[in-house]
Amino acid sequence: MSRTEKNLVMTKHAIEAEFPETEVLAVVADITSMEQVDEGFNKINQAFGKIHVFVSNAGFLPVPRPVLGSDFDVQDWWTTFSTNVLGVLYSVKAFARFAAERACLLHISSCLSNIPPLEVGQSAYTASKAAANKLFDYMALENPALHIVSVHPGLVESGMSRKSGHGGLDKVELPGHFCVWLHSREAEFLRGKFVWVNWDVDELKARKEEIINTDLLDTKLGGLSFVGWKGVDI
């Protein structure tokens, strides 16, 4: 599902050429439109039935500008939230109506949302991704039957990475393979956590008990422990 039909068709043809027995459905929808998103998921459900995996990857990056700069465009800044937060919420709610038992929901976020600012002009993208991180934290808390993980996908070559001025450093296979692993039983201990595709899977597995029993990889303020806090005391 994407708002850009040309990209969808190209991807559909590429997948079908390499895997001719795979059925691919291309659905055009703008995720800032709840009606289009609902219609799109209805089509997916009619074609394939219950949905086992949903990768929430839609995103918008405005032209980087300092917040208090004279050429700062407030509407362009807010459009980022319309896509990266509200649009994501629309799509996840539509997915939830058709989610299979123990379905997997992967939120493609960004490392920029949980590290100190690195450069000027990125406030809209990073703030919207940070807001979405907390949104998915609550989804995980409120929906224990869903396997929900937020993911930093690395830096691969894309229109958005080129717009940011950084291009690509990672191969696209890295996030692809990592997300496939996240859907496996082996990665169930990462439910509700924030992970980077650049991390070593074996090291993550070796620290499984620590990750489960502490707030390691939670979205939180560094330096403070919230272990055992259930809304009563710290």
TrEMBL record:
Family listed: Belongs to the short-chain dehydrogenases/reductases (SDR) family.
The name this protein goes by in its record: Uncharacterized protein
Annotated signal peptide: none
UniProt keyword annotation of Oxidoreductase present: yes
An example Gene Ontology molecular-function term: oxidoreductase activity, acting on the CH-OH group of donors, NAD or NADP as acceptor
Cited InterPro entries: NAD(P)-bd_dom_sf, SDR_fam
Keyword list, A-Z: Oxidoreductase
Pfam families (alphabetical): adh_short (PF00106)
